[in-house]
Write a structure and sequence with these properties.
Helices cover 24% and strands 24% of the residues. It has 14 helices and 30 strands. The radius of gyration is 28 Å and the shape is globular.
């Protein structure tokens, strides 16, 4: 039967990429399409083309219903297995189901399925005991060639990082074991800017808030870049006037608008916000809202009986109200993915809708079109920067800082994410991640470079001295000196051979340690280049210096160590260790 919908070009490309991948491999795959790109149409087309049994899973009944409806529109019969929809049908070739209902009734899914499609697949964890993994494991027992496909707008989880390992454009996501990822391959991806520029999504109008904003920068972040609810509530309780002023401005800007979604930081904050809005036009939805009440309130909002919908972390995915044309963000986040999910609620096309106002009152400093970096933002001034690998030439995206001309002056990347193809003639070998490291520690046994957090060398497997142990041991010695290095100066000592370079390390309390390298001696020149030339320009352009004057000309681009350890000789201190790229328990220079 012919499809009733003509797929957009990118939707057809996503379908073609899926067919191409699964003809060659049984390894799990992900398609990344922005909110509003029509993932349900891609699912319907794949289900239409399938010849064997398929299970389509998602986490909310609304998406089960939506995906099923698209498939039915082809004139095909599909089953629904969802307690929330009061249907438990599993005899059809294609079954649309909620993960909770299938997980609670595994004994009813012992047939042989050829494909599992997971919508909003960023919710899948790598844990074997999770509902998704238990379902996949059961179906694999019936068919060891089971294909698993995920679709999402945001292939990133704060607690996990990237949900896949290999990208079809030739790079690796994240570090660590590929088994930590619930999916192996990203086989198709479309950026948000593509959809907006081609008119598939409404243009966001970013509005600078003219009233006071919240300042969350003083709050401590966890390792995922998020904040403790208690700390947020404490800060917000001191800024009730700010909240009132913000809501007054939102109402003013929304006077001629259709639908307003407000994203609050905490439940307590959401209740306060709701109190400033017109009661008969406002609904509040939180994780604790009764499901029937939530469905009723959301339905009233979609039918435009309500104008304002205040929520706390519950309507970022699986929610579709195309008339929304104001997004007010009153919660902090360092996640580009979450920010895009929030803004995406207002970017669907609707009759008469010209744009969507987006107002950020939380000072998130997130560029909507920036890519997700895959690491928590190290500080508020950081932005995504492009860093080329000197080894393979791959253009990495890391957090970093740029100068007024847009040049990268600092970045926080550790290892190149590029993928190297197998050598010619090598069959069935997976591409390997480039081993170039921008930050590293050297194995004292074999000299190979390792990740700065490594405890054992990845080549010789021998233990690498922990920098904290080095510092702790040195601090115990009476004849040792340890300085937190706040910078260094270079010079060629007067009266000495021009080939000698003197480095003076400056401690934050005024202490100094010095050492010299004679570039006329190959061994000393090699040591200098291994320490400093390799790390030249944030390791973006390693250099092998041959002369001391050459180093002096470029000293601004040399990396200084974080700590320097020296031992007392008869009349001077001799530098013995320089610790670069330190990440440990001790405070570095000038850190609060």
């Amino acid at each position: 039967m012919n499809a009733p919908f003509k797929l957009r070009p990118y939707q057809q490309e996503a379908v073609d990429a899926t067919l191409r991948h699964f003809r060659q491999s049984d390894e799990s795959a992900v398609i990344v399409l922005p909110t509003g790109a029509g993932k349900s149409l891609v699912i319907a087309e794949l289900a239409r083309l399938a010849k064997r049994k398929i299970l389509v899973l998602t986490h909310v009944k609304e998406l089960v219903e939506q995906n099923h409806a698209k498939y039915q529109s082809y004139g095909l019969e599909g089953g629904i297995f969802s307690a929330g929809l009061k249907r438990k049908e599993n005899r059809h070739q294609v079954t649309f189901a909620s993960v909770q209902s299938v997980s609670a009734n595994l004994d009813q899914f012992r047939a042989e399925y050829s494909l599992v499609i997971i919508d909003e697949c960023h919710r899948v964890s790598g844990e074997e005991t999770s509902q998704y993994q238990r379902i996949i494991e059961l179906l694999r027992q019936q068919n060891d060639a089971l294909k698993v496909l995920g679709l999402t707008a945001t292939p990133y989880r704060l607690a996990m990082g990237w949900i896949y390992r290999y990208h079809y454009r030739g790079f690796v996501r994240g570090s660590g074991d590929e088994r930590d990822k619930p999916f192996q391959h990203c086989i198709y991806e479309l950026p948000l800017s593509y959809m907006i520029n081609r008119g598939y999504l409404t243009k966001p109008e970013l509005v600078n808030a003219a009233v006071a904003q919240y300042d969350f920068s003083a709050l401590a972040q966890d390792r995922f870049g998020e904040y403790a609810e208690k700390d947020v509530n404490q800060l917000l309780s001191k800024h009730k006037r700010v909240t009132r002023a913000i809501i007054e401005q939102v109402m003013e800007l929304a006077a001629e608008r259709q639908g307003v979604m407000i994203f609050a930081a905490t439940v307590e904050h959401a209740r306060e916000i709701t109190g400033y809005l017109p009661e008969r036009q406002t609904a509040l939805v939180t994780g604790a809202t009764d499901r029937k009440d939530r469905d009723r309130l959301i339905q009233h909002f979609k039918q435009r009986q309500l104008k304002y919908l205040v929520n706390v972390s519950v309507l970022t995915t699986g929610f579709d109200a195309p008339h929304v044309d104001v997004i007010a963000i009153l919660r902090p986040t360092q996640s580009v993915s979450l920010y895009q999910q929030i803004v995406g609620r207002g970017l669907r096309l609707d009759d008469g809708k010209q744009n969507c106002l987006v107002i950020d009152y939380a000072g998130n400093h997130v560029n909507l079109h920036h890519p997700e970096v895959g690491e928590p933002k190290p500080n508020p001034d950081s932005e995504p920067v492009q860093v080329f690998c000197p080894g393979c030439g791959f253009a990495n995206i890391f957090w970093g800082k740029t100068d007024s001309d847009g040049r990268v002056v600092e970045h926080y990347g550790r290892r190149c994410q590029g993928l190297l193809e197998p050598a010619d003639g090598v069959q069935n070998e997976r591409p390997q991640q480039c081993d170039y490291r921008f930050r590293f520690k050297e194995c004292p046994h074999c000299g190979v470079e390792n990740d700065i957090a490594a405890r054992n060398c990845h080549r010789c497997q021998k233990a690498i001295i922990d920098p904290d142990d080095q510092l702790r041991d040195a601090l115990k010695l009476k004849d040792a000196m340890v300085i937190r290095c706040a910078g260094m100066t270079l010079s060629t000592p007067t009266g000495k051979n021009d080939s000698t370079l003197r480095i003076t390390y400056h401690g934050e309390d005024g202490e100094e340690l010095s050492e010299s390298f004679d570039f006329g001696k190959p061994a000393q020149r090699t040591v200098f280049n291994k320490l400093f030339g390799r790390r030249f320009a944030n390791s973006q352009a390693p250099k092998a210096f041959s002369r001391a004057d050459e180093v002096l000309e470029m000293q601004a681009l040399l990396a200084a160590p974080d700590f320097v350890i020296a031992r007392k000789q008869k009349h001077y201190w001799q530098v013995q260790e320089r610790i670069f790229d330190y990440q440990g328990h001790y405070r570095k220079a000038n850190e609060a």
